[in-house]
Amino acid sequence: MKTVLHKAGTRGHANHGWLDSHHTFSFANYHNPERMHFGVLRVLNDDIVTGGRGFGTHPHDNMEIISIPLEGDLEHKDSMGNTTIIKQGDVQVMSAGTGVSHSEKNKNADEAVRFLQIWMFPNKKNVSPRYDQVTLDTTKGKNGLQQILSPNQDDEGVWVYQNAWWHMGNLEKGSEESYTIKQKGNGVYAFVLEGEVNIAGQDLSKRDGFGIWDTDSITIKTTDDAKVLLMDVPMEIG
């Protein structure tokens, strides 16, 4: 088993006033050659946007872009004609493919919105751009691992052009979960949203990231009530 640990305090940080962002991997003005990606996982940004502000219209191509709101309401508009609001409990994906433009804005003027924006390299390039959004049944992730993303259209959660399976767990103190990696050659990147856990023998706290590969399964033990995102992704970019 191989591992890589990214403590919360070692992430890149940029505060633009309207945007306070922490970068697990190299992004924008934060460049760390040892933190370019974890397998096909390229960007993991933890963003806070002040009331009424947001990202203006900008383009993407050949990237799977996933947004997971943690607090507040995020308004999305894109060149495919989608205008929607995503909030805590929702998961959104945009397959940029041949090219798409979008904007993201805090819907509310009087409170901040916090969300994760995560990018993955796709396993199929130059597809027609597409948009997908789901509202999770959050009771399913209580003391268990709820699938929120997969490569299969008929599975629970959103689907992507990549052999990736993501799960969210809301775990009570003292619980223990085992997770089996879905595909040979994949690894798991765990991101702790709340609380404290021990994963594969490593103690982790809020906003710590921990990558594990060259193993078939991992064990998650909670030392406090915790919320954890597991991203099971191919380690080879191809």
Describe this entry's structure for a reader.
- It is a single chain.
- The protein is mainly beta and 238 residues long.
- The chain folds into two domains: 12-135, Jelly Rolls, CATH 2.60.120; 138-234, Jelly Rolls.
- Helix content is 0%, strand content 55%.
- The strands form four sheets. It has a seven-stranded mixed sheet with strand order 1-20-17-22-15-13-14, with no helix packed on it.
- It has strands at residues 2-6, 12-15, 19-23, 41-49, 54-60, 64-71, 73-78, 83-87, 90-95, 100-106, 113-120, 130-135, 145-150, 158-159, 165-171, 176-180, 186-194, 197-199, 202-204, 209-213, 217-222, 226-234.
- It has no helices and 22 strands.
Pick out its properties.
seven-stranded mixed β-sheet, mainly beta, Jelly Rolls, 238 residues, seven-stranded antiparallel β-sheet, 2 domains
Question: Please, what is the average pLDDT?
Answer: 95
Number of domains: 2
Strand content range: over 45%
Compute the number of strand runs. Answer: 22
Q: Whole-Å distance between the termini?
A: 22 Å
H and E string: EEEEEEEEEEEEEEEEEEEEEE
Short description:
The chain contains no helices and 22 strands. The protein has 238 residues and is mainly beta. It folds into 2 domains: 12-135, Jelly Rolls, CATH 2.60.120; 138-234, Jelly Rolls, CATH 2.60.120.
What layout of secondary structure does this protein have?
Elements: E1 2-6, E2 12-15, E3 19-23, E4 41-49, E5 54-60, E6 64-71, E7 73-78, E8 83-87, E9 90-95, E10 100-106, E11 113-120, E12 130-135, E13 145-150, E14 158-159, E15 165-171, E16 176-180, E17 186-194, E18 197-199, E19 202-204, E20 209-213, E21 217-222, E22 226-234
Family: Belongs to the pirin family.
Domain Pirin N-terminal: 12-120
Domain Quercetin 2,3-dioxygenase C-terminal cupin: 148-233
